[in-house]
Design a protein that fits this description.
heterodimer; B: 3-stranded antiparallel β-sheet; 10 helices; 3 strands
């Protein structure tokens, strides 16, 4: 049952990746690649979370995977890596944490009067806000690190 | 006389390429790389300053005094990965097959006239992505349906206001407000098991993912100005999304 659920979430990650790919107008020949990368990234992320790895680290590993795999793939399918490594990481964006942060900030400022409950809201703002922040940082690092570390501004090689 | 005309033509071509890449959402590293590749095919050297709104470029020959400097304004940005990919491809072909100026010009024109996915395809794909997001954040199928509908209508409004030439941040506030308003009804009537997750994911179609990722790759490559500009654009977009969500939360008094 657990595996079925993992696969289902991963498939939806792939669909989300593909949807954003279409919004960014990716070339038709990269559609399958984007879906598969989104699927694998989702599978890795949610498996790691199931194994009780923290969500920030799980995201970093999944994004690193996408960035590393996209290099040999770029060579193979003749498209630059940006085209198909940005859409698969979009589903990793911490939307729910952002939502919780905004909600807590709003309650803190406009609604709550009780100091004890205000303290709880501060806790919620900080934990959700910083989780969101660290996930964003790990996406940014994961996607750009492989390119910069390998000192390759282009993946394609010319044989001459 | 003839050779200076060629220089001007080449400069215009390279500026056009650079502007097309910037508009389509390529990072600064890639723009510089492509420009240098084309310049080497045409046997010129080039130096350029690339910013968000304009490009300044000087094209010159190594051992002569012939130079040409031009500034080009960049039209509003619209992310298009097909163009990035196609330009990258012709830049490689141009190097291997030693293309002429006219050949590159012709290919570039063909790329500019490429068709995008139709509006309805984009609408359905992005709404499915919204539903997928909702599943990722633990929503059940009814929540996913709510997320699908709210994303669909939000994006539709976003596309329609594009024609009316509204300010882009105004459009984002409006898109975020309408999408979250529709998903907010799900919370109000407690539709599905996690109506909150539908609300949280209904606005994610607006996230400035490309701007933020490009900003970090630019910053890491020391293109500080462009990195900061892209980061600010991303931040403004996020603030606009939050503002729309804020209004919905005030209306529904969520807590």
């Amino acid at each position: 049952m657990m595996y079925v659920h993992l696969i289902e979430v991963a498939i939806w990650s792939g669909i989300a990746a593909l949807g954003f790919g279409i919004l960014f107008n990716i070339p038709k020949s990269t559609i399958v690649t984007v879906f598969v990368l989104g699927f694998l990234a989702g599978l890795i992320k949610f498996s790691l979370i199931k194994l009780e790895v923290h969500i920030v680290l799980a995201t970093l590993i999944a994004v690193l995977f996408v960035a590393v795999v996209s290099m040999p793939t770029a060579h193979k399918i003749h498209h630059p890596p940006v085209v198909f490594c940005i859409p698969p990481v979009i589903p990793m964006i911490p939307g729910y944490f952002a939502y919780e942060t905004v909600l807590s900030v709003m309650n803190f400022i406009f609604i709550e009067k009780d100091p004890a409950k205000k303290l709880l809201l501060i806790d919620s703002i900080f934990s959700n806000g910083f989780t969101m922040f660290f996930i964003l940082i790990s996406i940014a690092i994961g996607i750009s690190l492989p390119m910069l570390v390998l000192r390759k501004s282009t993946v394609k090689k010319l044989d001459n | 006389m003839d050779s200076s005309k060629e220089l001007i033509k080449a400069t215009n071509l390279l500026l056009e390429t650079a502007s097309l890449l910037m508009v389509s959402g390529a990072n600064t590293i890639r723009v510089n790389l492509t420009i240098n590749r084309f310049a080497s095919v045409l046997n010129f050297k080039t130096s350029c300053f690339i910013s968000h709104k304009s490009i300044i470029m000087t094209l010159y020959e190594e051992d002569t005094t012939r130079t040409c400097t031009r500034v080009k304004n960049i039209p509003p940005h619209a992310i298009n990965f097909s163009i990035i990919s196609a330009i990258s491809k012709i830049s490689w072909d141009a190097v291997t097959e030693d293309w002429t100026l006219e050949h590159i010009e012709k290919e570039l024109e063909a790329i500019k006239n490429q068709k995008r996915y139709s509006k309805i395809t984009v609408l359905i794909a992005v709404s499915l992505a919204g539903a997928g997001f909702c599943n990722i954040f633990k929503g059940d199928y009814i929540n996913m349906l709510v997320a699908f509908i709210s994303t669909f209508i939000g994006l539709l409004i976003f596309q329609l206001t594009h024609k009316e030439k509204f300010n882009v941040y105004m459009r984002i506030v409006l898109g975020s407000f309408i999408a979250s308003l529709i998903a907010g009804f799900g919370v109000l009537f407690q539709i599905g098991s996690h109506p909150q997750s539908a609300l949280a994911t209904s606005i994610l179609y607006l996230v400035p993912g490309v701007a933020l990722i490009n900003s970090f790759t630019d910053l890491l490559d020391n293109n500080i100005i462009n990195g900061m500009v892209r980061f600010t654009t991303g931040l403004m977009t996020v603030l606009a999304i939050a503002l729309g969500l804020f209004v919905t939360m005030l209306i529904f008094k969520l807590n």
